[in-house]
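Structure in, sequence out. Go:
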């Protein structure tokens, strides 16, 4: 079990670092969006085009990255969407059991399905070096690749969560030790 908990810690550390990177991406996204608005109005005033489709697409791509890369981080920190009607009143072991079942039967298979289904579209996008159809648009293949990357990260975080929940159920890990700061 200690080997599995070490593996869980490695996965947690990876997704923690990637999640913290997304904080910076949020700031960058806001700055690009701010420039898109200011550049459009200032450009009209001075009669010069100060923004482009590329800037708009950069903002979209950054948003995509925040959403895609932030999903595993959100799961790690138990900040994902959940219907808490019953869950909040459950004991830690019952929560661990529900989380383990949900992870094994829903999260992990869903992540695998998304990677498998997306694989062909991503490969096709790379094969033709797909770009945006908009004038001055950006390449699409890198952002499409992030779909696969994000679901692999989500799959890995699901493995980590399954390990931790199993450890809670077997008494090898206290429920409060599930966070990143815990010592395995």
């Amino acid at each position: 079990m200690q080997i599995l908990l070490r593996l869980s810690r490695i996965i947690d550390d990876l997704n923690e670092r990637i999640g913290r990177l997304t904080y910076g991406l949020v700031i960058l996204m806001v700055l690009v969006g701010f420039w898109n608005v200011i550049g459009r109005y200032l450009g009209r005033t001075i009669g010069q085009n100060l923004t482009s489709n590329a800037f708009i697409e950069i903002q979209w791509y950054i948003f995509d990255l925040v959403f895609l890369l932030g999903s595993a981080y959100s799961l790690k920190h138990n900040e994902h969407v959940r219907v808490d009607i019953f869950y909040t009143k459950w004991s830690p072991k019952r929560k661990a059991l529900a989380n383990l079942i949900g992870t094994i039967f829903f999260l992990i298979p869903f992540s695998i399905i998304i990677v498998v289904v997306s694989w062909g579209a991503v490969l096709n996008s790379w094969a033709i070096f797909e770009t945006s159809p908009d004038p001055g648009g950006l390449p699409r293949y890198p952002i499409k690749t992030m779909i696969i990357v994000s679901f692999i990260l989500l799959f890995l975080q699901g493995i980590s969560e399954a390990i931790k929940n199993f450890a809670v159920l077997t008494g090898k890990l206290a429920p409060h030790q599930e966070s990143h700061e815990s010592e395995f």
